[in-house]
Amino acid sequence: MIQFNALLKKELKEAFRDKRALMYALMMALMAPVMIYAVSNSMIKDLTETPALYINIQGGEAAPKLMKLLKDENILPLSQVPEKEKRLWQERNIELILPETFAEDMVEGRMIDVILRADYQEKALFAPLRRIKEVVRKYSAAIGSQRLLVRGIDVRLMRPVKLLEQDTAEPTSGPVFITMVLGMYLMMAAFVSGLSVAIDSSAGERERNVLEMLLCQPLDTLKIVLAKLSCASLIAAIGVILTLALTHFAIGFIDLSKIGATFNLDFISVSALLLLLLPLCFFASALQLFFAFGAKSFKEAQSTVTMIVMLPAFIPFALSFVNNKPQWLDWAPIAGQSMLIEDIFKGTPVNWNLVAFTTLVTVALTVALVKVMAEKLKSEKAVLALS
């Protein structure tokens, strides 16, 4: 125990000595309020506001009622665009084309082809196109109902079934994207905060010949690995706790009531989050040390370990496209934490059995990585980067 304490003291001293690396480690936490505030406000603005759209309308003079409906929804002709936004809407180039025979076809009761032309793959056009299509559908439904009424047919015959939707989500659950981003950000903090310490204490020490000198001493390699892991995990845990605190602080300045949502983290929710995230700090640091020890140089370690940092972003994103998730994903590190954290932010009751099992699997994998690293450090190939 004395040897371990001495090793841990040495690792902590070196980690806190480099102020620049420490600032980089905690950058994720310090950036949290800005990022959460900006992303959430942008999302709420898109969901609640109907800013003016400017589109190129051809043949609009033949359909005055449709033009009025578009104007009521703040969808205006391109000729009315303000000068400062002119270039933006010209580049977006949304066209609504009505046929020359629109008025005649309407009188004759024929089907009219209205063309909406735009780049449907452009993300910035998703919301504008959705609004335009809703207006055209509403106009079409209104005309259809009027024709039925003129012929003495009850319009309710066209709707034999009326669907009443009842949302069972908790009032605290906001849009899926916001809850996913919050969870992703916290897990990223676990992976990013200890990154520089993990690389420097493994590949960095090997390049400075410090690791070789350390292994020449009568020390158990398991204690050396545990000391490095504890130091990197401590920095990661500080980053996670800071991120969680500052995220809670930033959410207080976001008006979630605009989208009918609330956000409240009570003692139980915070306890569950820490129970999920702190073991993840150890797992992330163990994974980073494992790959950094396996790299042949400091630069290679930086490249390899940086790719691992993308896991907390990649896995939740991939999971969002899986409709029927296999059960083992509930227990897997990162995937399990991601889904549980998302549920906590939605305000659903904490599944403590799942939290405990996911934590257990994460700890078990961390222990396995530590034992493999301790064995590898007994080999000259690993110490001298010959493998």
UniProtKB/TrEMBL annotation:
Transmembrane segments: 21-39, 176-199, 229-251, 271-293, 305-322, 354-374
Top-level taxonomic group: Bacteria
Keyword Ligase: no
GO molecular function annotations of the record: ABC-type transporter activity
GO cellular component, one term: membrane
A Pfam family assignment: ABC2_membrane_2
Keywords: Membrane, Transmembrane, Transmembrane helix
Protein name, entry field: ABC transporter permease
